[in-house]
Amino acid sequence: MKNYFEELKKKLKNNINFEELDIVDNTHLHTGHKSFSPGKLHLHLKFKSNYLKSISKLDAQRLIMNVLKEEFKTSIHALEISIEKQT
Fold this sequence. Notes:
- By secondary structure, the chain is of the alpha+beta class.
- It has helices spanning about 1-15, 50-55, 55-65, 70-75; strands at about 20-25, 40-50, 75-85.
- Strands 1-2-3 form a three-stranded mixed sheet.
């Protein structure tokens, strides 16, 4: 799984300007939910990015979702996004 997260970070870094990214796997919190899909991940992306904070929240989320559109077809079910300024 660590390798997959490194690939996600690399893909995001190649398309979005950010200083730090922490990927948290929250899949285990959703296993009992009605819409749970085995094999699909529930991730929380925690960005530190002056660029993403400089654009609207909606535009930042659209950008991230667009970069990961193929992953939503294959391996990601849900995504939570947090963005902070780099200090």
